[in-house]
Specification:
Length: 428
């Protein structure tokens, strides 16, 4: 398996262009199945989660034609199947969205349980609650989630907790229901708004996306469209933190600054200087970061998907910080890897108490999940000496051209295969 090898100590300086948003792309692409003619989707990030979704769509019978590395024409009119098997569904959370898309398209869906980062139990009870409220019957049959409906009727659904996935899935299924569906306590993330805008560009009638009450008036037909995905808020935030951690000066372009407000606020609190333009943010830091406390919350709060990266900045801060993870029950697995590099962090339930170290030392670490992997890269960039990061397939799930983007601003990071380590893993 490949690894990243990072030699720390370089300041990041220059410009990084952000790719399309992973969590918007993996919601919008399955929703293309609802269209009655081809769609063109642009600014699609070239990452493995997206390729997994496109593979599943092809297996269902859609025709997926690459136009460029980041744009695709997708013709869903050839879809005949409603089954997404384990081989297609595993490894990514987004496969659950085929339940809503196929239920909306053909009133039946059979999808293997989703995969995704091991950051908690990741149930889909709220998704199922929404499908049943729409009139579907949902059961587990030989390990597959099966949803069927004679018809889908508008309803009111109150989500027991703010859930991005449930909001996405219910919205996708509801656009073809008869009547009005109201989702209360809905997620407000930028990718929820992007999905609603995409569906509306196909002829759906969705109001309130971005607030906690979303209204979907069902429609008979959804036509093809051309749609460009929003920039990735979390990719942008990751590079912002990397710029600050390395005491660099980086312009992160192709962003929507409004999506970055909580990240900008916390970086300023840690001592960074931030300049905001229409489509860029510039992050500069010329001293050791200061301590600050962070609590992750659903949008517009501080994103849980930025928690490991920001904790890595605090691991070298001047003073003690507290990071509280309020969304996931197990999102501190990366802490052990940081302690191998000299970080001083105590995890106590939902909080991590971080006593800033003067420096980190390079070590052999692993990416435990996607954002933990991003944290390992940031740690390697600031550490003294060399850091090897294994299990980087997690990082490739959500960061397009991460080596090229970081190298272009001065990082010493390479992707190497095990063969270069004097041994080759035996294929078993
Ligand atoms: C999405 O996951 C993102 N993934 C996650 O990003 C992100 O961390 C999360 O939203 C929160 O923002 C994608 O969009 C593909 P949730 P999702 O439903 O939809 C509980 C990344 O790094 N819950 O908002 O799975 C759940 O256990 C990934 O890009 C239920 O109990 O998250 C969690 O505690 C990691 N029952 C909380 O709600 C349900 O039916 C929020 O989960 C659904 C969720």
């Amino acid at each position: 398996m490949d690894k990243f090898v990072v030699n720390g100590g370089n300041r990041l300086c220059g410009r990084i262009c952000v790719s399309g948003a992973k969590n918007a792309a993996v919601a919008i692409l399955p929703a293309v199945l609802l269209a009655e003619s081809p769609c063109i989707i642009e600014n699609v990030p070239d990452i493995s989660d997206v390729h997994g979704v496109l593979r599943a769509m092809s297996a269902l019978g859609a025709t997926v034609t690459p136009i460029t590395r980041n744009s695709f024409e997708i013709d869903p009119t050839g879809v005949r199947s409603y089954v997404v098997n384990k081989e297609l569904a595993q490894g990514m959370r987004a496969s659950s969205y085929f339940l809503g898309a196929l239920l909306g398209k053909c009133k039946k869906a059979k999808v293997a349980p989703p995969g995704g980062c091991a950051i908690g139990l990741r149930p889909i009870d709220q998704h199922i609650k929404g499908f049943e409220a729409l009139g579907a019957k949902v059961s587990i049959e030989s390990g597959m989630v099966v949803a069927r409906a004679d018809k889908l009727s508008g309803c009111s659904v109150y989500l027991d907790m703010v859930s991005v996935g449930a909001t996405v899935n219910i919205m996708i299924a509801a656009v073809r229901a008869k009547g009005m569906t109201i989702i209360e306590n809905a997620a407000r993330e930028p990718h929820i708004v992007d999905l609603a805008n995409f569906l509306n560009s196909m002829g759906a009638d969705i109001m309130g996306a971005g607030t906690s009450v979303i209204k979907i008036r069902g429609v008979e037909h959804l036509h093809g469209t051309t749609y460009s995905i929003i920039p990735d808020q979390i990719e942008a935030g990751t590079y912002m933190v990397a710029a600050a951690a390395t005491r660099g000066d980086v312009v992160i372009s192709n962003v929507i600054p409004k999506h970055l407000e909580s990240i900008i606020a916390k970086l300023k609190e840690a001592g960074a200087t931030i300049e905001e333009g229409d489509e860029f943010v510039r992050v500069a830091m010329n001293k050791r970061p200061g301590k600050c406390n962070v609590k992750t919350m659903p949008h517009p709060g501080f994103p849980t998907d930025m928690q490991p990266q920001f904790a890595t900045l605090l691991a070298i801060a001047d003073g003690t910080s507290i990071v509280t993870e309020s969304v996931w029950e197990n999102r501190f697995r990366y802490v052990e890897q940081l302690t191998f590099m000299g970080a001083s962090i105590q995890v106590d339930g939902k909080s991590a108490i971080i006593t800033g170290a003067k420096k980190l030392k390079g070590a052999h670490v692993q990416a435990d999940d996607l954002r933990a992997g991003a944290a390992m890269i940031i740690a390697g960039l600031v550490a003294e000496g060399q850091t090897e990061i294994s299990s980087i397939e997690y990082i490739d799930r959500g960061y397009e051209m991460v080596v090229e983007k970081l190298t272009a601003v001065g990082a010493d990071i390479k992707r190497v295969s095990d063969e270069k380590y004097g041994y080759t893993l035996k294929a078993n």
